Please model this.
Amino acid sequence: GITQHIGAYQAEVNGKTITFLDTPGHEAFSSIRSRGTKVADIAVLVVAAEESVKPQTKEAISIIKAEGIPFIVAINKIDKESANPQRVRQDLAAEEVQVEDWGGTVPVVEISAKQNKNIDALMEMILLVAELEELSEDLSSPCEGVIVESQLDKLRGYVATALIKKGMLEIGDFITVGTTYGKVKSMEDFLKKPVKRAIPSQPVAITGWTTAPVIGKSFKSSHSKDEAEKIAEDNTDIMPLLKFFQNSAPSYEGKKVLNVVFKTDVSSSMEALESALGAIKSDLVAVRVVGYEVGVIGEADIKSAISSNAKVYGFRVKIDEGARRIAEKGNIQIKTFDVIYELIEAVRDEMANLLDPEIRMVPHGKLRILAIFKTDPRSQIVGGKVTTGKIVRGAFADVMRGGEKVAKGRISQLQSNKEDMPEVREGLEAGIKFEFIGSEDFGGILEGDILEVYEEESVKRTI
Model:
């Protein structure tokens, strides 16, 4: 029920073509939303009519403003009973977004995607804004654009989704992204139909790469391998996006470490995962990424996990049968997920498992010592009155004298009216056998001492 990938598709309106980049809304995908806005000519800010402005909405507004691109507000879900479009307008005004019917300059369209209501009006508004901005295509060469997604296809090799910004890309052209280059072997449009050339604003899936191109990076076409290689050499200073996974994380010294191998379906999933894990801060435990790649979980991943005692996590990927067998033999844990925040929570949980549990005291009651009956080096038999709460057999107790703790022990036997009891409540007298814990130098319980009785509860820590 949530968008987890960036999508690129086109729609025909009044004989004109609009290319849409659909970005995920979950907080883990903030970098993808930012990249989508950088590529776009116009932004459509979608706000739910019943939820109004959310943290992700504010983030999107700041990205749009930073890029300085024109935008339209689409108030969605107006079909819901709880819809309140006027509240949306008010909340947007608080974020310095003034829509046209409130005296501002930002166009607003109320829509219901579910009921297909006013979608045509939204499309026409996009074309109107494009006309006012005098947007036009540039067919001059070389072709330039942006890589918005990349993945590993078992049959076709590395496949990258590119958005053409300038010029025309044709099969046989060489294309360079950072230090990676390839020869365009095939192209498909957003409907997966093969195309021989791509023009500005057209999204295409390109094959022919030797390695996965870095998402979010610009590309440039050339007509020869030598020219492509020269461009790649000039780009050697371009830093890869995945800095956290490449070990520019904080020092592991003094921390417990969770070793992991990550495999995801596409590059942007890996980027989103890195962003979410990089935000996890702990002084006690850290994640060390010993491997991360796009594609199925294979034997090499399991062998890497065995050598580094790592766990293997996959996001929307399958597990190779050979890898599964090696994992079972090597006792390596593999977990796969279809929802990214479930994967992130699983990593947090495993990090927490490395920490010793927190011991909490659950108080039961207090007993004032009235008599000492028998004393030996490891225990005492004493009597007293329960002043608050209850006294429980098997519970821990601190010996308090003058407001200070002088010893700790456990109530191993408990009687009231000479009968064994599981517990004795406030106002009653009790006889107990008190066994000392680590109190060799303690002289013993005295009349007038207070026993504060409690249970120790082991609570798993959270990250």
Notes: The mean pLDDT is 88. Residues 119-132 form the longest helix (14 residues).
